[in-house]
Design brief:
The chain is an alpha/beta fold and 281 residues long. Helices cover 43% and strands 16% of the residues. It has helices at 6-9, 16-27, 31-38, 45-53, 71-82, 93-102, 129-145, 160-171, 183-193, 207-212, 249-255, 265-278; strands at residues 55-60, 85-86, 107-111, 116-120, 125-128, 152-156, 175-179, 201-203, 216-219, 237-239, 259-260. The strands form 2 sheets. A 6-stranded parallel β-sheet has the order 8-7-6-9-10-11. A 5-stranded mixed β-sheet has the order 2-1-3-4-5, sandwiched between helices. The longest helix has 17 residues, at 129-145. The two termini are 30 Å apart.
């Protein structure tokens, strides 16, 4: 959340329908479908009943730079679009948490400059946005690619989202290559993942060479315009959860519908359904 500004999210509510159309043309599924798949849920009557029964509150939290203008409204718009039951708007911070508990909210969405979570109050568990965002974008990439088993995937950035994305790819038996501008971070992540990976893991130290040798890419960096037109081919598929957008303008034009990127939508959808799955009912 530290990388989001009001200008990144101010049009989310008014563009959700058109974004659904884009996602369907790219992955075969709208935002709700990607969120459900990220949580390993299906769209059936039981899931619908659980969504209707669950009460969700979005609590504005004051971070170091204050509350990001429009953030709570954007999160609420996404959740309503997905079909969740949003309780009355609540005030910021502790008062908001108290109000949410007073109206028996099951899931509390809360974000400051460091963490963004969906708290399942009665279960005393939470879903972290970094992990949910990674799962959502890896799900989207897998849908675009027709599955990732045995395919080589480059993960750019080994922070929270990149690490979670790499772990998700390993669970899909993809062959993962890690790269980070801090080489020590990629080495440390590889050491953590090697014991649980049944597919090969690799390290890269040259981004340009790594991009040219991979068709499937997860850009989880926080660097703008690091992927250029010369770095991609007509077969390249990119899932880019990182903010700011790492794919340069000319590369975006060439990729067309072969790149997924948004500031909030896929991550919120994934964490909402992952939180729903944790509710005891």
């Amino acid at each position: 959340m530290i990388h989001l500004a009001a200008s990144d999210i101010d049009k989310i509510g008014s563009t959700l329908v058109s974004y659904d159309h884009f996602l369907e043309s790219t992955t075969g599924f709208p935002l709700k479908g990607i969120g459900l798949k990220a949580a390993s849920l299906t769209e059936d009557p039981r899931t619908g009943q659980r969504m209707t029964a669950a009460r969700v509150a979005v609590v504005p939290i004051t971070g170091e730079l204050g509350v990001v203008q429009g953030l709570s409204e954007a999160i609420s718009a996404i959740l309503r679009h997905l079909g969740f039951n949003i309780v009355t708007a609540v005030p910021p911070d502790v008062a908001g948490i108290a109000d949410a508990m007073d109206v028996l909210a099951d899931i509390l969405f809360m974000a400051d400059g460091r963490r963004f979570i969906a708290l399942c109050a009665r279960e005393r568990v939470y879903v972290d946005n970094s992990e949910a965002t990674a799962e959502g974008f890896v799900t989207g990439l897998s849908l675009m690619a027709g599955g990732l088993m045995g395919k080589g995937v480059l993960v750019i950035g080994c922070g929270r989202v990149g690490s979670a994305a790499a772990a998700s790819l390993i669970r899909q038996n993809a062959e993962v290559t890690l790269i980070d501008r801090n080489a020590e971070k990629s080495r440390e992540l590889m050491k953590r993942l090697e014991p649980v990976s049944s597919a090969p893991l690799f390290l890269a130290d040259d981004l340009k060479a790594a991009l040219r040798s991979h068709e499937y890419i997860v850009d989880a960096s926080n660097s703008a315009d690091i992927i250029h037109e010369a770095d991609i081919t007509d077969a390249t598929l990119i899932a880019a959860p990182g903010m700011p957008f790492g794919v340069g303008p000319k590369a975006r034009k060439r990729l067309g519908g072969r790149v997924l990127h948004d500031p909030l939508q896929i991550g919120v959808a994934a964490m909402a359904f992952m939180a729903l799955k944790k509710l005891r009912r």
